[in-house]
Fold:
Amino acid sequence: MAESIAQNYFEKFTGPDAATVLSGIIHTNPKTFEDNWLDFKSGFTKPEDLESIWSKVLGAMANAGGGVVVWGIGARKHGKPPVDAAHSLELVPDVNYLTSRLIEICHFATDPPLAGIQVRPIPKAKGSNEGFVVCLVPEGRAKPYESLKAEKPFYLRMGDESRKPPLPILRQLFYPKRAIRLGIEMEPVTLTTGFNRVMTKDGQRLESICFRISVRNLGEYTVEHLLLRTQCDTAQSLMQWDYSRDKHKEIDIDGLNEITPLAIALNPKLSSTVKVIASFKDKAATKAPIFHLSVYGKDLSPLSAEIKYKGTLAKSECL
Structure:
């Protein structure tokens, strides 16, 4: 969404009638205000200030959602609360020189260098050196971006200004929340002949079903210290199953063991599997029980899935 807003600005200000559109922008009603994706700069910028200004803008927009910078238009505060709006034409004296200079500065303006910047000269009239320079700054893919030539190391585009970000936002830039995607599969497991029922310590025999739960990492980031919580409102017990115990006809259980470690580190496209035995008071309850599954991990908000298990392969993506 943010990139499309910046792209729309860029296409509008570099199209076939770009010079006319830009020349008339100071007369629009309502006024054309700066925002998160649009910044106006005077064409009279002093050469000694250009590196600092451009470096600041690049870092700020790269750390936010990208944006467009238009050189050749002066902005002034307007309205309540006051916001910068296009105010006057302050044309760039030589659009081709400024274009080449901005492209040159890009290579050392931020750390890491920002790829995908587009810089277009827009002469005010055919054959004229005067005019505008319009720049598309993409959102960065390797945030945070340090502004190497600016007064402060880090900036963020916030409304009509490039500001030093508050500490919580700066922390988020350095330690972004990762988009974790996990999928869950439940698949029946056939036990060896001779297995009968689970038996509680007080002598109650329970009907049981056995299945395999696989948690697969569908995303692009490794998930650490993965735990699985399995719940079923109609089950009398849930326990991790060890195939080596399959030889017993009856298994004594004591209480509910529903939280199971899965993996120290689950890499992308890999899965971790646990075998579970769920026990019920009667056979009818084993037909289509509903299982509530929750997955926990380091720096991961709990993800959950709900599966109605009918004895065949069932899949769900954690939400």
